[in-house]
């Protein structure tokens, strides 16, 4: 078994959500997800509810050896596509429980503009601003599907060289799934990125919103890294460069 202890009040809101919905999602998904076994209550100095889950073997994709990153990307796209097909009726809409994942990128417009101002001279803020504005303009037509909300390497387990499980549904909910695209730029590249993009049932407008989610988070991380960890800033700068390049390529294709 594994025990999950929320590290703050904002995360404590996710405990009941996972216990309510993970058993509903699991039967429709092609890979294991956490199975809730019990809920703990506040006590002994710990102020929030907590969870006990069935143990899932594997290493996170951050450290686990992956035989083929392209196959990994294809498997992840297949998992997410299956998640999007689960009946979303009654599911939790964007809110404080998941930091507004699944809503429009505009909820972080203020943070993004502050980051753009702080990063002048560090990145191409003019082009980054264009990525953000394009995301704001790429309105979501509505309709809701389930989404994971944080499909990043730390929440993806690898075993025997392949994607073997998906964990941490704390930011999951029902809404716009564009937030699930960000791993395309934070972890994937080249052939694996193309395989991930091809495997998801998204139109170009959804990918535009996805680049908005990605540039918001990457710039926020970079501002902090430049202050506290210059060494980490280089990798985040590379992520931003990938987002900007992808935006330019998408613009070129739209004009062709």
In short:
Helix content is 47%, strand content 11%.
Please characterize this protein's 3D structure.
The protein has 256 residues and is mainly α. It has a single domain (58-255), classed as Aminoglycoside 3'-phosphotransferase, Chain: A, domain 2. The chain is built from 8 helices and 8 strands, in the order βαβββαααββββαααα. It has a 3-stranded antiparallel β-sheet with strand order 1-3-2, covered by helices on one side. It has a 3-stranded antiparallel β-sheet with strand order 4-6-7. A hairpin with a 2-residue loop joins strand 6 (156-159) and strand 7 (162-166). Helix 3 (109-118) packs across helix 7 and helix 4 (125-137) packs across helix 7 (204-228). The longest helix has 26 residues, at 230-255. 36% of the residues are buried. The model has no long low-confidence stretch (mean pLDDT 96).
Query: What is the spatial order of strands in the main beta sheet?
Result: 1-3-2
Oligomer: single chain
CATH class: Alpha Beta
Report the β-strand fraction as a percent range: 5-15%
List keywords for this structure.
256 residues, Aminoglycoside 3'-phosphotransferase, Chain: A, domain 2, 3-stranded antiparallel β-sheet, 8 strands, 47% helix
Topology:
Layout: E1 2-4, H1 9-25, E2 36-40, E3 50-53, E4 59-60, H2 69-84, H3 109-118, H4 125-137, E5 145-147, E6 156-159, E7 162-166, E8 173-175, H5 183-186, H6 190-199, H7 204-228, H8 230-255
Antiparallel strand pairs: 1-3, 2-3, 4-6, 5-8, 6-7
Helix pairs in contact: 2-6, 3-4, 3-7, 4-7, 7-8
């Amino acid at each position: 078994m594994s025990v999950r202890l929320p590290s703050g009040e904002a995360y404590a809101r996710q405990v009941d959500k996972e216990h309510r919905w993970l058993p509903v999602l699991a039967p429709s998904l092609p890979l294991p997800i956490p199975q809730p076994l019990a809920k703990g209550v506040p006590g002994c100095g710990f102020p929030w509810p907590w969870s006990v889950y069935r143990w899932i073997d594997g290493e996170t994709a951050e450290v686990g050896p992956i035989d083929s990153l392209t196959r990994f990307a294809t498997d992840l796209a297949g998992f997410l596509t299956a998640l999007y097909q689960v009946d979303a009726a009654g599911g939790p809409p964007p809110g404080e429980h998941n930091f507004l994942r699944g809503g429009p990128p505009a909820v972080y417009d203020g943070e993004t503009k502050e980051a753009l101002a702080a990063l002048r001279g560090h990145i191409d803020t003019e082009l980054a601003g264009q990525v953000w504005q394009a995301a704001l303009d790429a309105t979501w037509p509505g309709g809701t599907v389930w989404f994971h909300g944080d499909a990043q390497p730390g929440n993806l387990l690898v075993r025997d060289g392949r994607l073997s499980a998906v964990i941490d549904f704390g930011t999951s909910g029902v809404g716009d799934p564009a937030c699930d695209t960000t791993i395309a730029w934070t972890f994937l590249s080249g052939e694996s990125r193309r395989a991930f993009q091809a495997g998801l049932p998204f139109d170009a407008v959804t990918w535009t919103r996805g680049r908005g989610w990605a540039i918001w988070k990457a710039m926020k991380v970079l501002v902090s890294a430049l202050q506290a960890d210059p060494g980490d800033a280089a990798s985040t700068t590379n992520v931003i460069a990938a987002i900007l390049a992808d935006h330019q390529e998408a613009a070129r294709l739209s004009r062709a």
